[in-house]
Design brief:
By secondary structure, the chain is α+β, with helices and mostly antiparallel strands. The protein has a domain of 44 residues. A 3-stranded antiparallel beta sheet has the order 1-2-3, with helices on one face. Strand 1 and strand 2 form a beta hairpin. 16% of the residues are buried. The model has no long low-confidence stretch (mean pLDDT 89).
């Protein structure tokens, strides 16, 4: 069975790519390159999907940048 799940990719201050699947609880990984991060999140998602079905209530809409002054 094939699943299409949204992922979020961030980069930390050390340049490491942090990847997560917001529709799967606790499904996160990382990599030192985008390709490595994508391979790792694919492996993590396969394992997460063995225990959980993606939340159907969450749909990917897009990404925006929010500027906040404090």
């Amino acid at each position: 069975m094939q699943h299409h799940v949204p992922i979020v990719i961030e980069q930390d201050e050390d340049g490491v790519f942090i990847v997560s699947v917001p529709t799967l609880t606790g499904c996160h990984s990382y990599g030192h390159t985008i390709d490595e991060a994508m391979r790792n999140i694919t492996e993590a998602a396969v394992l997460c999907l063995q225990d959980e079905t993606p939340k159907e209530t969450a749909h990917f809409i897009g990404v925006r940048d929010l500027e906040v002054s404090i």
